[in-house]
Amino acid sequence: MGFQPLMDDRKRRILEAVTDDYINTAEPVGSRTIARRYNLGVSPATIRNEMADLEDSGYLEQPHTSAGRIPSQKGYRFYVDFIMKLKPVSDEERKRIRRTLEQKRREIDLTVEETARMLAHLSRYAAFVLSPISRAGVFRRIELLPVDGQTVLVILIMDPGFVRTHLVTTEHALTRQQLAHIARFLSSRLADLPLSRIASSLLRDIKAELEDYTNFIDATVEAIARSLEMRREEQVYSDGQVNLLEQPEFQDISKARSVLELFAEDEALYSLLSGVVGDPGVTVTIGREAGHPGMSLCSMVCAPYEVRGVPMGALGVVGPTRMHYSRVVTLVEFVAENLGDVLTRILVT
Amino acid sequence: MGFQPLMDDRKRRILEAVTDDYINTAEPVGSRTIARRYNLGVSPATIRNEMADLEDSGYLEQPHTSAGRIPSQKGYRFYVDFIMKLKPVSDEERKRIRRTLEQKRREIDLTVEETARMLAHLSRYAAFVLSPISRAGVFRRIELLPVDGQTVLVILIMDPGFVRTHLVTTEHALTRQQLAHIARFLSSRLADLPLSRIASSLLRDIKAELEDYTNFIDATVEAIARSLEMRREEQVYSDGQVNLLEQPEFQDISKARSVLELFAEDEALYSLLSGVVGDPGVTVTIGREAGHPGMSLCSMVCAPYEVRGVPMGALGVVGPTRMHYSRVVTLVEFVAENLGDVLTRILVT
DNA sequence: CGTTAGCACTCGCACGACCAGAGTGCTAAA
DNA sequence: TTTAGCACTCTGGTCGTGCGAGTGCTAACG
Q1: Which residues, including other chains, have CB under 8 Å from residue B298's CB and lie 6 or more apart?
Q2: Binned average pLDDT, 10 residues per bin, chain B of 349 residues
Q3: CA A169 → C1' D12, Å?
Q4: Domains and their CATH numbers in chain B
Q5: Mutate which of B103, B107, B158, B179 to disrupt the A interface (most A C-beta within 10 Å)?
């Protein structure tokens, strides 16, 4: 930001008009339409000239000769970065968002799930929320609860109030004492470690050490160690994929499929998100910028949410590149803020 | 079953041919095609006459005059009940299924999730698995683990090795002793009760009693009681919805949407499934039989899976009415059996 | 020199005509 | 009862046409 590239004011206003109009109508927009609908005080002919220039510099493109123009990826980028006027979230929506987040039970997973649903509903696009796991957080302790004979509930407790549980079957029955023993040992080795540091190499070491130390059968220890691996923990909740089917750009089923497949594959979605999750503030990723084939027709508006300044996760909206950026950016920002607040209240005792 | 409605053999074979052909080609099938591809030893003209009869009795229908015929809902029903020859699951698939189920970690949820994925992959349709909760099972005990200040992990342990956990925030900090107290009380009241009996009325009673007994602030108790409600527990895992988009019947996006919406709405999906989940054996529900608008173009093949004869959940496949029933029925049956076996080994100590 | 009016030109698309192909129902003969 | 033959129907694809929207260019204008 800050840097304003050279573009004279009239061009800027025309690019704005084209983009706004195309976002609303999904139809290529011509000089006549602009002259009629937006009063720039100039004739269609002038607008035509300017549009030709804008096309030359890559901000607009023509689906085919003598149709109107539509914004190119570069055009959207410029629009998002320098032109668009953010549309504040309406009071009514603010209220609804706050209410939904408040009223939700005190369970984090449900809150997150509901957030995704709400975001999809309000944006009318697809939404996702990365469940909170603070890479900056720390491990606190582990508890092992015998459930019956050979089943043990592994409970991982992390920094600000996160809990993950895994049910594992062990090969040999372990006594409550033995389990407490292991739990204490693991807790002592892992406590206060930032989650980001708990790499598989460390786990291997610990596992080896644990075997020496306790003489337990490896399968048992293995099961516990495995449940320490965090990969799976950063779960993605998504909702509203079907909303995308309403968009004219996805009427063609093969286009719809490529983006729906993206959401169906946890892996793909996760790899996609991991690119932007670290960045502070609202990030807008347009079309091929995401570097993912299924996203070439889509844009993504994404923001991290924080608890006491520490980023805990991220959420966002996926829609066609022809997205209501000005509305969605503020929406995503507002929801992220509020989810952060709610989680702060849940987590920070 | 058992009852064989009146239909002479030739009609039956023609209905079979039409259905088989339509299932394979997705094109209305005419008398000529049948005469050519299936040697029934009669001419197209004869077949035409028979087909006209079959249409009169409602087994076939014509999309429009002088296109071929396609099976009606009634036709599919007859085909499924009396005509089709089940196609055994190939050895290779058997192996793959067994391997996938074995190799999966010992966590129930992951196993179930993976089962849905596998079933979708093998059937090339959409698949779902209802996570195991035995209505016939019994409650065993509850544990309350303090996580920090005001956060408590509620751990519900059920009959054969199921565990559900909920993280709840309480209004007032409770000591470990107090929690143990509550847990013991709740366990004593609920232990050995069949899950199907734990109705909300009972929970209300217990809650009242607990308040008297412990003098705890209601919000706390409320939170715990709420996590006892089982509704949410019967979770549905589904996968492969995008597979449906490959089917020619869903090329029209509005048709695709109605069924995708079904899967997106947990509620709808659940209400749909609850209808058939109780039935033993493989159930085939065709089109409007499901009584759900979004399903009118779809069929569902569903089977319960059992642990030691007790039904624990169900799984199934959803595809177009023009589904490869003969393949899917055996597949669903086989997977249900094997999932049951695997769970038996996991659960029964 | 920037702006604008006018105009010829280009496409895409919707519409209608047309034909080929597939399939039917009916009738009459085997 | 089955079958061959035939007239008829309907869909889907192809082709041509005209219309409308929009452009680029040129020349005139302030």
Answers
A1: B259, B287, B290, B318, B319, B320, B321
A2: 66 94 93 88 90 93 88 96 96 95 73 93 95 71 82 79 74 78 83 72 72 59 62 77 93 89 84 78 93 92 88 91 97 96 77
A3: 61
A4: 9-83 (1.10.10.10), 91-133+234-347 (3.30.450.40), 139-233 (3.30.390)
A5: B107
